[in-house]
Amino acid sequence: MSDPTRPPAVGVLDQGPAITFPPGFLWGAATAAYQIEGAATAGGRTPSIWDTFSHTEGRTVGGHTGDVACDHFHRMPDDVRLMAELGLKSYRFSVSWPRVQPGGSGAANAEGLDFYQRLVDELLGHGIEPWLTLYHWDLPQPLEDAGGWPARDTAARFADYAQLVADALGDRVRYWTTLNEPWCSAFLGYGSGAHAPGRTDGADAVRAGHHLMLGHGLAVQALRASRPDAQLGITVNLYPVTPATDSPADADAARRIDALANRFFLDPVLRGSYPADLQADLASVTDFGHVRDGDLATISTPLDLVGINYYSRHVVAAPVEGEQPEAYWRAPTCWPGSEDVRFVTRGVPVTDMDWEIDAPGLVETLERVHRDYTDLPLYVTENGSAFVDTVVDGQVDDTDRLAYFDSHLRAAHAAIGAGVPLRGYFAWSLMDNFEWAWGYTKRFGMVYVDYDSQVRIPKSSARWYAEVIRRNGLAAQ
Ligand code: IFM
Question: Which residue of 21, 56, 296, 311 has the fewest CB atoms within a 10 Å radius of its CB?
């Protein structure tokens, strides 16, 4: 690997006096099991919905699967060494449910747990705080066959699994996230079908969202009972939702999408209720008959922190008659009951995902959660960008990604200045990996992965981030 302490290719750090983050700010990077581990059949691991989905023709770009991915399962000690060289204070990873509890019920698989025990020990040995996510989308296939997240029993199975992981790792892992981005699991998995398991039923998506949150609440109760000292939270992906114009119709479109994207999860988890307007918007989709007495109390079991993943903003407009303006695109079917809302392209710079780059949206998002929902410590548990990378003379100079991180870290610092209790930031991602339906065609990593040789090359952004961590801050602009 090249020298991670080499000066950054772009001198962003050296413009003006430094801005500093609070002492103890938790600087990290994140990954997820199915995106990096590979070793899909090793040590008793059985298929998850993502194994099935990616092996189904036409589901992922190029038919890519996570069978090998970054081969992190076999290269873990080297990868942890790389994290240490970058100076990471924390590493956020997810546990593969079908690796540690094949089939999703019954006894733990000792061989699967052993991998995470070794990972955690390796991290601690390098002074890196492990941050464990229990569910980053890899539902064991037999649980999907039994109904998946739209089925209530899946929530109970998730709590059992959480207990099993807590029994094995609770003595060494302090930070726990139950779910990663339940919106994606529910609305991409069961609404649009763009993600595993690829089902397309709005009512199922809403039920899945509820049972994901129920599983979260039950898991928090189990973890709290066995590890009272643990820091427990959930990670939600949030978007500011802005109306395209001042018209009341566009404002209403923004309200609807905000309800589905953000308040669907924030309100039950942090307030113990579903928003009334959301329930009215979904009236043609579901009567919420799946919500039982006591569910919302379980879902709103007190937490220690909230994790927020931030990537971009949604700008939306009301349905229009006739020909669509070119900048408008129809929302995909991941918005049950609001499929006719238009998403608007503003023409601002975008990443390789076509996601608009909007750093002020991070400030808005953090301020909103703090102002409207909670005094709990907040963490940016993911933030990052895909860009096309090129290896030149063994180096990857990812100026665009570096600038993205830089602008969003400035936004994070501004939020702290405005009183938001932001305690840490995790770059997505440590390394290039399997980007779900996009396969390996989108690179989010600070570390380049050559998938043929599995060689890792820290990009300019990685060297820059190492320096940010070392200084606990950046230069003012
Ligand atoms: O790669 C994903 C990750 O798994 C969840 N959050 C968004 C990332 C980029 O799409």
Answer: 56
